[in-house]
Design a protein that fits this description.
mainly alpha; 74% helix; single chain; 5 helices
């Protein structure tokens, strides 16, 4: 057994934290769908309300994958693409006009998250409390 107990705990905690981040986004898209749709429209995308709900469904899938471990690697890789897309679509240079620089910080913060998701994709969900479903090994 050795020191694998802390590794299992760390993996489970990381999966929970990542699921919680996407769950917060999901809750925002459900609870404030009109506001979210306005932001999507301001970014220039068509059918903003439909896109909001598609994003909510996608984020629900990510939450389930991260919590259960099912299709974990696939979900993590898709999440990388999604997070980088969000950074450029909603927080790139055209949004860096706020006085406090919060949009720049929001843009930059997507990249460490993407790196963590890549790490998750490479190393998988772990051996404990993880469904072994998925195409990537």
């Amino acid at each position: 057994m050795g020191n694998s107990g802390w590794k299992t705990g760390a993996l489970l905690l990381a999966r929970f934290v990542m699921a919680a981040l996407f769950a917060m986004g999901l809750i925002g898209k459900v609870a404030m769908s009109g506001i979210m749709a306005e932001e999507i429209a301001k970014a220039g995308f068509p059918l903003p309300l439909a896109l909001n709900w598609l994003a909510a469904i996608f984020e629900l899938g990510l939450v389930l994958a991260f919590l259960t471990g099912a299709f974990f690697r696939e979900a993590a890789l898709l999440a990388v693409v999604y997070v980088i897309f969000l950074a450029f679509a909603f927080h790139f240079t055209s949004h860096w006009t706020d006085e406090k620089g919060l949009e720049f910080g929001a843009f930059v913060s997507h990249f460490p998250m993407a790196a963590g998701l890549l790490y998750m994709a490479v190393h998988g969900a772990g051996e404990k409390l993880a469904m072994k479903l998925g195409w990537l090994k």
